[in-house]
Amino acid sequence: MTRPLLEFDHVEVSYDGTPVVHDVSLPVSEGEVVCIVGESGSGKSTLVRAAMGQLGRRGCVTRGDIWYKGESIPDLAPRRMRELCGSELALVFQDCLASLTPIRRIGDQVFEAMGSHRRISREESDGLASKMFERLGLSDPERVLASYPFELSGGMGQRVGIAIALLGEPQVLFADEPTSALDVIAQAQVVRLLTRVNRELGTTIVLVTHNMAVVEAMADHVLVLRDGRVEEVGPAKQVLEAPTAAYTRELISATPRLAAIGS
């Protein structure tokens, strides 16, 4: 039996010794789109940050394991984790503007991110970034590259963060509420782009969201979390059409249907 590309194996995550995520297991096969859903505070973002080694000093995986290509992520040396992050594993933050350095122009930060994992000229970096910005609906990429983060709107900053993550051509893209700061039209653009990246490049996507319309448009499998515990997990069609957990049914009924989001 082929081992999953990424696997959460009975994972418990704690902050200051207090567990906040409890016994979560989730296999993620190569090329899949897996959505992790639940209310704020359910542990969705914590689970993704654990997989990226970004729990900070207060947090750690206290039980279970997170496997990537047979390597235990919690046990990796910092140098090995730096090699993986940005090249094989990438993360789109919920607030991308806050993750950018405020006193450096966007073009400089894109070039630094791309140059940390491969040899690339500034001209090539700007060209690739401009094409990605345009695909994400940023109509004046040259101006964006020359801007500081504080000169961008929240929606523009979100798309810049998504672009930086995708430019590294990661094998696994973690996206933490990537559409939360966007209007419906921009949400649809992002969903279409991520879907195309998955289908054309085979990028595995683990997407955190509370928007069940996004789940319906993208997901192969769904993990439903509540208070750090698994409520339901399974194929997206099964979870969306015949959920077994009352909590899942509540999430589905509470979400407005956005029929055009993935069209």
Describe this structure in words.
The protein has 263 residues and is an alpha/beta fold. It has a single domain (6-254), classed as Rossmann fold, CATH 3.40.50. The chain has eleven helices and ten strands. The strands form two sheets. It has a six-stranded mixed β-sheet, sandwiched between helices. A four-stranded antiparallel β-sheet has the order 2-1-4-5, covered by helices on one side. Strand 7, helix 8 and strand 8 form a beta-alpha-beta unit. Helix 4 crosses helix 5 (122-135) and helix 5 crosses helix 7 (154-167). The longest helix has 18 residues, at 184-201.
| Biggest sheet overview | 6 strands, mixed
The CATH class:
Alpha Beta
- Element-by-element helix/strand order: EEEHEEHEHHHHHEHEHEEHH
CATH fold assignment:
Rossmann fold
The stretches of 5 or more residues where confidence is low (pLDDT under 50) are: none
Query: In the residues, how many domains can be counted?
Result: 1
* Count of DSSP-assigned helices: 11
CATH H-level superfamily: P-loop containing nucleotide triphosphate hydrolases
Count the strands?
A: 10
Structural class category: alpha/beta
